[in-house]
Each structure stands twice: as structure tokens, then as C-alpha cells.
């Protein structure tokens, strides 16, 4: 059966494989599909974000996604409350009509829910059930909210990027940040299952510095040019923070529920202070936009300084470590400081990360019957 205009309505809190199957089924059977994202104001995943996730996943030209705030109670036995919901849904669909685009009446409602037939009747449409027992994709929004890691395989890349717990390993030069970041990610990858995809993101600032120094040496014709000879600008630190954040997001989209980051935008703020002696509002904005959930500060204690040709020198190391500690405490960022030999540092990092993962994810409760 072919339909002119199919309708899919849901909270998509968050969207999962079952939702995508529902929309794709409607798209295959209809000339036009309207997807209404009906979110209540008490829910903790923004409506705009859910809408963007669905638009990314469903790029079919005849599928349109409409965001709707629906704060009506949930009572499937109340005609009055049913009417309130339908008014909200129709208002969302009317947005398209308000742009001068003709939207044909809904003639099919696609749903996996028990309320599907009633919803279809209120749109004077037929109900098309799509895998009500959820045999194809045994998942629900409730199950995902209760334990995202257990249902990770059912989540699309942008949802994974949003939900991944991000641990940033930060510290002064030559304090073992890269070594620890690599080892921490490897520890969780070795657990197998969903954790096998655990990744770490290298420090982009180091790559940027290597390229900047090489370019300066070529321009000056002086291979002995040193770091202190470089002139830095705020825009470069902003670029470093943005590029590193983009690398993080790319890794989080294809990784496990945990992402390990070798430095982050917060660390770039501190390095901006080191080289320019001023605050970095643009870099701070990146730090505020990209969420991290735990910071692991690598102490210089017990770590011999190694000059690899791209480091300031041992004299600055203790000062930088102190600035990291001060800023972490001043900002109230959840963090630990690791000291001692590598094995001791890794054990402390694993314990703190395990505690973070045990806390799980927090979603506010949606409106329920």
C-alpha cells in the first residue's frame, strides 16, 4: 500500500535504532513523511538536539522533521488530553504550511506503540503498525536512558558522541600525559564487548606546534630556530582548541561509551596564559561547549624531564603543573592528580574512571501516564 502522507510521532528521548527503523519504514511506503519530535520541557535532552540527530540520520528528501513542545499530561483515557496532544502535533505540521508549502492531509500513522490506532483515528488516517513487539530492534527509549552502555549498539553516531563519557588527561610537559592516555584507553578496550571500541584522542596542539616551528624554520632559513623564537596569537590557540574538539567528536561518534582525551580546551586555556599571559575567552567558549566529565592531572613528581625538541624546559614544568592544579580547583572541575610510577598512575586513573562510569548517565524523567 502506498500513502501520500505518513506521520511518525515520538519523544525520541534519545533516538535509537527502533526509531530509525520506524521512520525508514514510513519513508519506503509514503510520498511524504512528517516526523514530529514531541518533547516536554521537563526532559533533559534539548529538543533542538534531538531534531538535529534525526535530520542527520534521515536525509531522504521526502522526510521532514518537526520539533514540537508538548507539555500536556499523559492520559490515554482522556479525550480532553488526547485533543491537547493532537493540537500540539498539528501545530508542528502547520509550520510547513505557514511557509506556503502545501501539506496533504495525513493518511497513515506509523507506530510501534499501543496508542497508535487511537492516534491514527484522531488524524482520520489508517494505522500502520511497525514491529510492535520490537523483535527487530529490542530497545526502547526507557531502556537506553536506564543504561546507555548496554544499548550502545542501537545508538547512532551523533547520539554516541553526545553520551560518551569524556576523560581528559592533562598536565605540564614531560609528565606522562600521552603515555597515560594511551594506556587508559587500552585498558578499557581490553575489556572487550562494547568497550573494545574505546579510543584516545592525541593532543592536536603538539601537531600544530610541530608544523608552526617547521614553517618558521623554513621561512627564516634557520633550522636552529627554537620555540622561544615563535610568536603566538590568540587565534592559533582557538584553532587548536576547535580542531582538537573536532577530533574528539569524530572519535566519540565511532567509539565506546568512554573517550580518553590527551589534553582538551581547558588545557589550551592554561597554555594560552603561559605564552600570551592573558585570558582566552574564545578558547573558554570551546571548553564550555565541549563536555568533559573527569580530568586526570599528571604530576611531574617522579617523572624525569625529557627534552624532545618541542618542550619549553624543565624550569617551567613545576609552575605549569601548579597552574593546572589551581585552575581545576578554582573551577570546581572533577579531577584527580596521579603521582608515582606508571603502574600506580594507571591504577588510580582506572579507579577514578570506573567510578565515573558507575555513576552512569542522568536523564530527567519524561511525562508518563
From TrEMBL:
Residues 8-72 form the Cytidyltransferase-like domain. CDD domains: SIMIBI. Residues 166-345 form the NadR/Ttd14 AAA domain. One of its GO terms (molecular function) is catalytic activity. Pfam families: AAA_28, CTP_transf_like. PANTHER family: NADR_TTD14 AAA DOMAIN-CONTAINING PROTEIN, TRIFUNCTIONAL NAD BIOSYNTHESIS/REGULATOR PROTEIN NADR. NCBIfam families: cyt_tran_rel. This is Transcriptional regulator. It comes from Actinomadura geliboluensis.
